[in-house]
Specification:
The chain has 521 residues and is mainly α. Helices cover 60% and strands 5% of the residues. The protein has 21 helices and six strands. It has helices at 3-18, 28-37, 44-59, 67-84, 89-108, 111-123, 128-148, 165-197, 206-220, 229-237, 242-261, 269-290, 298-314, 317-328, 334-351, 359-363, 399-409, 433-437, 463-473, 495-500, 502-518; strands spanning 393-394, 417-421, 427-432, 457-458, 477-481, 489-494. Strands 1-2-3 form a three-stranded mixed β-sheet. Strand 2 (417-421) and strand 3 (427-432) form a beta hairpin. The longest helix has 33 residues, at 165-197. It is elongated, with a radius of gyration of 30 Å.
Amino acid sequence: MIAVPIVGGLVVGLLARFGSEKIRGHGIPEAMEQVLTNESRIPARVTWLKPLSAAISIGTGGPFGAEGPIIATGGALGSLVGQRVHVSADERKTLLAAGAAAGMAATFGTPLSAVLLAVELLLFELRPRSLLAVAFASGLAAALRATWVGAGPFLAIPDLAPARLAPVVAYGAVGAIAGLAAWAITRAVYATEDAFARLPLHWMWWPALGALVVGVVGWLEPRTLGVGYENIGDALAGRFALGTLAALCALKLVSWCVALGSGTSGGTLAPLLTVGGGLGALLGAGLATLLPQAAIDPRMAAVVGMAALFAGASRATLASIAFAFEATRDVDVLLPLLAGCAAAHLVASLLAHTTIMTEKIERRGVRVPSEYAPDFLDLVRVADHATRSVVSLRAEQSIAQARAWLRTRAADARHQGFPVLDAAGHLVGVLTAREVLEAPDSDQPLATLLRRGPIVCFEDESLREAADRMVLAGIGRLPVVSRADPRRLVGILTRSDLLHAHERRLAAARRARRSGDGGGG
C-alpha cells in the first residue's frame, strides 16, 4: 500500500521530465494559462500524456478524481483540433472549452454545470458564438454517458425536505465557514508546493516523495486512496459516523494537499467535494444539535458544504450550484445552495483575490479576468463621441495650396488626418498632414495623393466596431458618414475620442467611490 503509490509517482515524474512538463498539476489552471497567454494552443503530446499520467497516478492510489485530468484532456483535444484546422484564436478557445466541458459532463452527467464551469474558468465571456458550441459538446457528452453508463443521478440523496428561513440561514453559515476553509486549503496547497520547490532535488523526484505520504496515509485510512467518489455519496447520505467522517476528511485533505503540491498529475474537484461534503455534514450535525428547532438536515448541509467549498476555492459559483443540483437532481437543494455558495464566494473573495485555479498562473505574471462585464466601448455609439466640426480638404485644390494652408492652419485642427471632399461635397479619401507636407510641391490636384478609398464608420455603429476597424486598417482616425448617404461626411472619430469616451465611466466610478468613502459628501 505504501510502495505502489511511490512507483506511480516515479513513473509520473519520468513522464513529465521526458514527455511534457505540462502534465504536472491539476489540469484546469494549465488550460487557463494556455487560453490567456498562448492563444489556446496546447501541445499535441499533452493530449495523450495527460490521461496516461493521470491514470497511473490515480490507479496507484493518488487521492484525485478522474474529472480534472479528463477535463484537461478534453481541452487539449479541442485545442489540437483547433490547431489542425484554420480557425481564429477565439474559435480555438471555444474548441478547448467545448472539449473540457464535454469531459466534465461525461464524468458526472452534469452538462449544465460543465457549461458554466467552462464559461467561468476558460471562456471568460458569455457570447452565443462560444456558448452554443460548448453547450452542444457538453450535452452530447452527457447523452453518451447516459447511454453507456446510465442516466441515474451521480449522487442520489432521497427525502430531502424543502428548506425554510431558519435552516437557509444556517446553511449560509455553513457556506461561510466553507469559504474560510477554501481559503485555508488554497494557502496550504501552495505552501506545500513552495516547500517542495525548496528541496535540493530535481522536480522529477517530487511526485515520488509526495506519494510516500499518500501511501502512509492510505495505510492508516485506505478510503483516502484513489478517486473516492463513493466517499462523497456516503458522506452526503449520512452513512459515516461523525468521528470516522472527520478522520477521513482530514486525512484525505493531507494526502491530496501533499500529492498535488508535489506536482504529480491529478485533479482538484473530487477531493474538494469529499472534504466539503464531510465538513458540511459535520457542521450540519453540530448545528442540528445546538438548534433543534431549526430543522437543520445534516445531509442538506453536506450538499451545501460540498458545493460551497468548491465555489470558495474556484469562485466558479454558478457552476458549483448547478453541479450539486444536477448531481442530486433534487430541486429542494437550490435555495440552500444559493445561500451557502454565495456566502462561501464572499468570504473567500474578502480573504484573497486569487483562487486555487489562478494562484499558480498569477504568480507567473498572468492576469486572470475575474469579472465578465460587457465591453464599455460596445455600449457607446459613434454618434455620441465623434467630432462634428471637421476640418477637411478639397480634392480639386493643388498640392501646393494644401501645403501652404497646412503650414498656417493645421495647428488649429483637432486632428492630423483630413477628409478629402470632391466638388459635390462627397468624401473621396483621407490624407494626413504628413502625407501632404512631404509631397513634392506641385500644381497637381490633391486627389492624386490618394492611394485608396476612405475607410469609414457609421453614426449608429459602436465604438468597439470603430476601434477594431482602426486597428485592422492601421490608422488613427475614421471619417463618420451617414448610413442613408455613405458619401456624406458628418464627423470624424479619432483615437483621442475613443479615450475620452471612457471619461464618463471613470467619472461615475469616482463619484461612487466618493459616495462610499464620505457618505455622499
